[in-house]
Fold this protein.
Amino acid sequence: MDAATLAQQPFMSVPELIRMHASRSPRSTAFIQDGQVVDYGELDTIVDQVAAALQRDGLAPGDIVSICAANSINYAVVFLGALRAGVVAAPLAPSATPESIADMIADAGTRHLFLDADNARALAPVADRIQSRWITLDDSDHGTPFREWLAPEGAEPGPVTIEPDWPFNIIYSSGTTGSPKGIVQPHRLRWGHIRRGLSPEYGIGPESVTLLSTPLYSNTTLVPFFQTIALGGALVLMAKFDAERYLQLAERHRVTHTILVPVQYQRLMDVPTFDDYDLSAFECKLCTSAPFRADLKADVLRRWPGRLIDNYGMTEGGGVCSLLAHRHPDKLHTVGQPVEGHDIRLIDDAGNEVAPGEPGEVVGHSPGLMLGYHNQPQKTAEAEWFAPDGRRFIRTGDIGRFDEDGFLMIIDRKKDMIISGGFNIYPADIEAVVRQHEDVGECSVVGVSSQRWGETPVAFVVPAAGRQPDPVAVREWANNRLGKTQRLADVVLRDALPHSAIGKVLKRELRETYEM
């Protein structure tokens, strides 16, 4: 089945597509990691073994397994084997606290927990709260070793016909702070991602080699992961991101596709020998998950071959905007335009659409929406907005504005907005000014409690390479360029800003440490 024919299919499941590639090109590479190579014939066999083992253990379509581990080939095959059995995978962030992970496992009703030695040790203090069977992907002795648990080679699972609206996976949106919300994504949503991978701008197919260094529990990673494996390409996995190692792998394997978050792009572009690496095989580089500065996009376009696409969207589904940066170098300050079949609108606090050119909360509709938050119907309802025609949209919590050409500009996170003396202040506007100071590398602005103003902005600053900024001087310099209501109450120097594994600055952590 060629790309054009595949794109016309109303629905195909990931397990079906893996079986198709295994039948047609069994010796084609599916996975590469640390010298281990798995081809599609081997992948199809072990996916059957995982599915058969799950069925042997009594798991049926709709049951849930969790995975809490570093990226590995075994991690990937468990996820894929679960899908073949109709079982729902709930990948969990190892960076979350043990208590939060235990909460997520309880919320999911996890039957089996797949993990590695590091995470088993981390979960030991809450082991009595976790009723799931522990299976160790690295065959360590913290549970049943994966090779012992796996069904024998040649095992065939019972047939499962996957429906488009069946749950595919549950992605937990929180875990470092706050109450975790399990986002239930259907197979239909993943099929939409796969079809997008067939577009000429993405160009994913059997000749593609995709390098992934972000964690497999994140939707950021899972989109190109499933696009590549479903379309017959090869996946190069990194357990942990390292800029030099990334460049070495990209050169060695002639990588064509990747996804990175902005902080990773910055670290790569800062490698002194970046320009010495042969990256000429690259066709398409993707970015998502956090604001991608215009000047950094421009640097990537200038020095790194291949197309650059900045995607804006939510794990919950809804609409996606896409900036084809290589086609629109004058729009690098935006997140692009709605992709085909996606409807992006802006609404005010009363739920009414705003006038053209006015800012509002971004809401989106697409053919692929989450089924809801697992076990949290009230939270699901709070995340929804319905258009006058009854169509369901998902609220993003972001404040945006469309320019005259229909490109969306994200002003800030609604929850990060600072209300000082009754005025709405957007941290991104202040950050853009502070970053212009020659001594400033990174900057994040948060609102902290103020008896006089209610809230007041504070900037956390990481020095530029080789610089030693004076916090008072930076504050005065910035305040001379900011509006009266935007002026900083304080500038705090940090060696580094706290980031999540997918590159988002943990503003709540900054705020809490300042106010302690």
Remarks:
- The chain has 16 helices and 27 strands.
- Residues 417-515 form a domain with the GMP Synthetase; Chain A, domain 3 fold (CATH 3.30.300.30).
- Residues 56 and 153 are 14 Å apart (CA to CA).
- The chain has a mean pLDDT of 94.
